């Protein structure tokens, strides 16, 4: 039997704790915030599950991970179909025939493709090397200007020419009239919210949980008292930033309860112009098809923010420089912290989706317990 300390009660930590406890190990989970579930935390307000840290839509093409997460909650059939508001003009996302039709009046896929080809010709066949080039190469200059540039520069606090191309490849481009934001085989929102998933994972006689506990207040003691530590915080903070700071992006959320039934008619509306200071407004009840009290709705505006020490980090900024610095921290971890497992978006400095977090935790579990 091994004594594990899991630092952080988010999806990575909880998945690891659940699997370790199932195998008879003793697990203590500490969490610096006053609630479980990290950034997937949801809370009921007026019968509506409010995503306290931004929209979370579970999607995966991995049947094993879909079945795995369905142990802990029943999922509804929600399909994410955000709309973009560009200075009052409304477009469907992701980029598909509805978007192309609204923008250019084209009707057929051939016409849309011809328009994209005409606009991307400014790249003269150059292989895209940054987000701007990648975006133009995928959808042409009009969509880049109206739906990508302003949003992306607000979101990341960098020029699109300084950002990696992979970020825009997260979004599908389709020559069909299909507004599904994801290409995955499985998608949905847990009925009753996400928090229950982590609660159920941690409900085991071998697991104890302590909230409001800061690992760094007693780091040396923790490292001494436990056989192994699973650390899901920021890897650079773990090492006291001694090789330098990794870059993160932070967010600020402004949540309001409104005395009306339906504020914006969709769960997610992106504001893609450069001037509006927030990137999106989510109206939580639409994740569960309008469930909740009548004449009440909860909306959240999401403002991107620079990150500095002490702020909540939400996104790693995975450009070349930061990835190179992460690699040096990873080497440090491999050589000087052999009893520590680093996991999750912050521990592994990767822009993971929820299914990838569970996948990464299960890979760690396999390595740890099955050799
Ligand atoms: N994006 C955009 N316009 C949009 C939505 C997304 O340009 O209306 C770009 C933006 O660069 C963003 C990236 O696509 O960071 C990935 O979007 P996604 O919705 O996957 O971001 P997340 O929900 O993880 O913040």
UniProtKB/TrEMBL annotation:
> Which EC number(s) does UniProt give?
5.4.99.9
Q: Does the keyword Flavoprotein apply?
A: yes
| Cofactor(s) recorded in Swiss-Prot or TrEMBL | FAD
* GO MF entries: flavin adenine dinucleotide binding; UDP-galactopyranose mutase activity
Q: Domain (UDP-galactopyranose mutase C-terminal): give its ranges.
A: 146-351
One GO cellular component term = cytosol
Query: Which domain of life does this protein belong to?
Result: Bacteria
The stretch of residues making up the signal peptide is none
Q: Which InterPro entries match?
A: UDP-GALP_mutase (IPR004379), UDP-GalPyranose_mutase_C (IPR015899)
Which regions span the lipid bilayer?
none
Which keywords are on file for this protein?
Answer: FAD, Flavoprotein, Isomerase
Protein family according to the UniProt entry:
Belongs to the UDP-galactopyranose/dTDP-fucopyranose mutase family.
> What name is this protein filed under?
UDP-galactopyranose mutase
Species annotation: Ligilactobacillus ubinensis
Ranked from the top, the taxonomy reads:
Bacteria, Bacillati, Bacillota, Bacilli, Lactobacillales
């Amino acid at each position: 039997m091994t004594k594990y300390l899991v630092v952080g009660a988010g999806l990575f930590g909880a998945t690891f704790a659940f699997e370790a406890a199932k195998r008879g190990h003793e697990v203590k989970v500490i969490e610096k915030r006053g609630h479980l579930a990290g950034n997937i935390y949801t809370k009921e307000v007026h019968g509506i599950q409010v995503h306290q840290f931004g929209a979370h839509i579970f999607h995966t093409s991995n049947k094993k991970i879909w079945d795995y997460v369905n142990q802990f909650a029943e999922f509804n059939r929600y399909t994410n179909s955000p709309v973009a508001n560009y200075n009052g003009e409304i477009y469907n996302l992701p980029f598909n025939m509805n978007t192309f039709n609204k923008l250019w009046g084209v009707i057929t896929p051939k016409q849309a493709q011809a328009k994209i080809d005409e606009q991307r010709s400014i790249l003269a066949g150059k292989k895209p090397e940054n987000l701007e080039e990648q975006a133009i190469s995928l959808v042409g200059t009009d969509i880049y200007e109206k739906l990508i540039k302003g949003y992306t520069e607000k979101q990341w606090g960098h020029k699109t020419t300084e950002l990696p191309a992979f970020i825009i490849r997260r979004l599908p481009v389709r020559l069909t009239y299909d507004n599904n934001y994801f290409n995955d085989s499985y998608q949905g929102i847990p009925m009753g919210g996400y928090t229950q998933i982590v609660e159920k994972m941690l409900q085991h006689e071998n697991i104890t949980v302590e909230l409001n506990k800061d690992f760094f207040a007693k780091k040396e003691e923790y490292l001494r008292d436990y056989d192994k530590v699973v650390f899901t915080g920021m890897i650079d903070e773990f090492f006291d930033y001694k090789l330098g700071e990794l870059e993160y992006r932070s967010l600020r959320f402004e949540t309001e309860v409104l005395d009306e039934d339906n504020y914006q008619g969709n769960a997610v509306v992106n504001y893609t112009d450069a001037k509006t200071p927030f990137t999106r407004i989510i109206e939580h009840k639409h994740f569960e098809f309008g469930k909740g009290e009548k004449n009440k709705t909860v909306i959240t505006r999401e403002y991107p923010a620079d990150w500095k020490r002490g702020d909540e980090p939400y996104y790693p900024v995975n450009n070349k420089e930061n990835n190179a610095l992460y690699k040096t921290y990873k080497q440090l971890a491999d050589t000087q912290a052999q009893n520590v497992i680093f996991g999750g978006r912050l521990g592994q400095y990767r822009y993971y989706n929820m299914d990838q977090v569970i996948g990464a935790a299960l890979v760690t579990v396999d390595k740890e317990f099955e050799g």
